[in-house]
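Case 213 in the screening queue. Each case pairs one protein sequence with one candidate compound; here the compound is magnesium ion. For every case the pipeline is the same: read the inputs, emit a complex structure as tokens, and attach any notable structural observations.

Predict complex for case 213.
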Amino acid sequence: MNLLLYGPPGSGKGTQAEMLHSRFGIPHVSTGDILRSEVAAGTPLGLKAKPIMAAGGYVPDDIMVGIIRNRLVEPDAVSGFILDGFPRTIPQAQALDVLLTELSKAFDRVVYLRVDTDELVKRLAGRMTCPVDQRTFPPSTAACPEHGVKLVQRDDDKPEAVKKRIEIYLEKTLPLLDYYSAKQLVSEVPGVGTIDEIHSRVLSALEHAKVMN
Ligand code: AP5
Ligand code: MG
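Case 213 output:
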């Protein structure tokens, strides 16, 4: 099963992708998480990406396409993957189509988590992140239940960066909805409600689209 979780910053892509990963055993491929690992490791890519990400901008398309090309040929992605955060621009989507064709793969579904801007801003302002594996938690969570470490706030969850992330999403990423709708791949899921409710909606959407057996 090859899925794309699509939605604005803070719509719950990471949260839902982790639940799908646990259920189906296919990898959750988050380009945001990959970039944050590079930043934490201080690699040349991380040094380049750090200021762009902190300001809420997008890392250049050629870099992102290279990252995803390397990731999708890893053995664990052979039987499927859940993409989160890529593609984010039309050129990225076009490059991904070429790559998927080369790999004899295609998306089974694009799940669009629809959440309005007020709710996004509220969620991102309070979101806490595990510094070990980048999993995200709601505002009241103090420590990571798995790693026992204190949760931190992401640099790009500060108000100015959140504003920029939403603006760039509307300009560069929203057009992907038309791109994938034209291919009749999109299932729209209302992204407000409890995390479990949204997970059930995602599963129903996959069932309805006959992606799940
Ligand atoms: P990325 O990490 O992908 O950030 P994002 O798209 O802004 O999305 P988020 O991770 O902020 O939100 P999410 O949808 O995963 O929501 P979450 O589940 O955490 O990218 C970061 C940066 O990397 C980009 O800005 C860019 O610089 C760069 N980058 C990455 N990919 C790139 C690309 N392809 N091209 C160029 N640059 C790229 O949930 C949010 C919060 O809400 C959490 O606290 C969560 O617990 C809570 N929550 C979840 N569900 C619910 C619910 N139902 N009700 C209430 N709260 C909820
Ligand atoms: Mg995320």
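Case 213 observations:
- The chain has a mean pLDDT of 95.
- Residues 7, 9-15, 30-32, 35, 52-53, 56-59, 64, 85-86, 88, 92, 123, 127, 136-138, 156, 165, 193-195, 198 surround BIS(adenosine)-5'-pentaphosphate (ligand 1) (CB under 6 Å).
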